[in-house]
Amino acid sequence: MLRLKHRGPDWSGIYQHGDFYLAHQRLAIIDPASGDQPLFNEDKKIVVTVNGEIYNHEQLRKLMPNHKFRTGSDCDVIAHLYEEYGENFVDMLDGVFSFVLLDTRDNSFLAARDAIGITPLYIGWGLDGSIWISSELKGLNDDCEHFEAFPPGHLYSSKNGGLRRWYNPAWFSEAIPSTPYDPLVLRRAFENAVIKRLMTDVPFGVLLSGGLDSSLVASVTARYLAGTKAAKQWGAQLHSFCVGLEGSPDLKAAREVADFLGTVHHEFHFTVQDGIDAIEDVIYHIETYDVTTIRASTPMFLMSRKIKSLGVKMVISGEGADEIFGGYLYFHKAPNKEEFHKETCRKIKALHQYDCLRANKATSAWGLEARVPFLDKEFINVAMSIDPESKMIKHDQGRIEKWVLRKAFDDEEQPYLPKHILYRQKEQFSDGVGYSWIDGLKAHAGQHNSASLTVPGGPSIACSTAKAIEWDASWSNNLDPSGRAAIGVHNSAYKDHLPGVANGNMDTKIINNVPRMIGVGAAAELTIRS
């Protein structure tokens, strides 16, 4: 469990039932006094470990008046919902979560991950037929023959065998929607998404880069904080946090937004060398080699450490808007509304590998939780039902990227933001913290990458040079130095694709035939075994 202690420094809980193990590291946000895990139903026959926040837990409790809840934790409803509704309760949860539930009455278990994959989850299989589930790859690497990402919006049921999708919104099919754009409907949907994320029993703040997305998060939070339970506990003046190199675009814009909103603003600086020194730790925690993710995770990682040192345990952030509204600058070249919409669908589906991974793991490395209202289920439904013609970038009509979002909050009487901030061009986070961060990182890699220059590389078929691949068009889709990759030449050539490449998921028959489960865990917990 020590490998994941950073994710939950407030409590360690372990439960054993026969060959089943559930372990949990808790970061206490709701009901810190009594919400320690694992959580149970009344007779303790149903056991749950959870990483996440269930924003509608109070409404769900009212649906079960005959149940007695042991704690005030928002996650306490999960065991009771299962007892009342069976495996189909997952879609009732409004929030973010990764959980494992053990039913000791029949030794069955259930694991599930939230709709978009805001919380991380991985599943692995041991040589002895055991199944392992963990919030991070570090919990599986030493004990599993094979492991992979637990797909968002899915659940794994030992009763039914294998994974099945529980999240099936209309946009997932990528069919083109036709609902007319209504700026007030979109505005209210986002305000509701932010308001529900003000549920907290610990000090919190907002991440404020000065870009459109984080600035809207900060603005809506500041506007509705007064009168909430959080304001009564921690005060009605919002704290905001920004990180960047000296003189970076984000620092300047964030200061201006903070002054406009009246937040208590905290500005953290880092140098290129600070970032370079942190990269090894960043990769250890975020568990990816994706270039853009590492570039953006590094300043977020450094900032999260500073934020946690101030006693703050939760922040609200702006991830997800660019995917939903086509905010990346390449969307300027989208050929038509159909391609525009389909690309936004693809981007949302992939978020768990990129921005969600970064936002969760870069903050969790220091025991800090990040909440992302743009990825609220109901808000996504509203935003993705808009006719994508309204989202298209049209310079002749004065419509820049994310125009529908900007227009929704363009209020002359009660402005949410300064006009030039509301219409500030998109800056990717790794750029906005200071252009010299990426430039400096590239220069460092160039100076310290001598070993790679000694290794030959490039595409090859059957030991060919890169140029020879042009001789046959089919070869470019089957790159491998093996002689069998020479389709049309080798007698035993690969038929359609390289073996093991086409399907990234383990065959469900293998899953179905697993005879028993040795260990399971979820959330900030690590699966263990004796």
UniProtKB/TrEMBL annotation:
* Entry EC no(s): 6.3.5.4
- Binding-site residues, L-glutamine: D74
* Annotated site residues (Important for beta-aspartyl-AMP intermediate formation) in this chain: E319
> Any idea which positions bind ATP?
L207, V243, S317, G318
Pfam families hit by this protein: Asn_synthase, GATase_7
Q: What does the record give as its pathway? A: Amino-acid biosynthesis; L-asparagine biosynthesis; L-asparagine from L-aspartate (L-Gln route): step 1/1
* MF terms in GO: asparagine synthase (glutamine-hydrolyzing) activity; ATP binding
Gene3D superfamilies, sorted: Glutamine Phosphoribosylpyrophosphate, subunit 1, domain 1 (3.60.20.10), HUPs (3.40.50.620)
The reaction(s) annotated as catalysed by this protein in its Swiss-Prot or TrEMBL entry are: L-aspartate + L-glutamine + ATP + H2O = L-asparagine + L-glutamate + AMP + diphosphate + H(+)
Domain (Glutamine amidotransferase type-2): residue spans on this chain: 1-161
Any one Gene Ontology BP term: response to stress
Q: For this UniProt record, give its keywords in alphabetical order, as a comma-separated list.
A: Amino-acid biosynthesis, Asparagine biosynthesis, ATP-binding, Glutamine amidotransferase, Ligase, Nucleotide-binding
- List the GO terms this entry assigns under cellular component, sorted alphabetically: cytosol
Q: Which InterPro entries match?
A: Asn_synth_AEB (IPR006426), Asn_synthase (IPR001962), Asn_Synthetase (IPR050795), AsnB_N (IPR033738), GATase_2_dom (IPR017932), Ntn_hydrolases_N (IPR029055), Rossmann-like_a/b/a_fold (IPR014729)
For this protein, the record's SUPFAM superfamilies field holds: Adenine nucleotide alpha hydrolases-like (SSF52402), N-terminal nucleophile aminohydrolases (Ntn hydrolases) (SSF56235)
List the protein's name: Asparagine synthetase [glutamine-hydrolyzing]
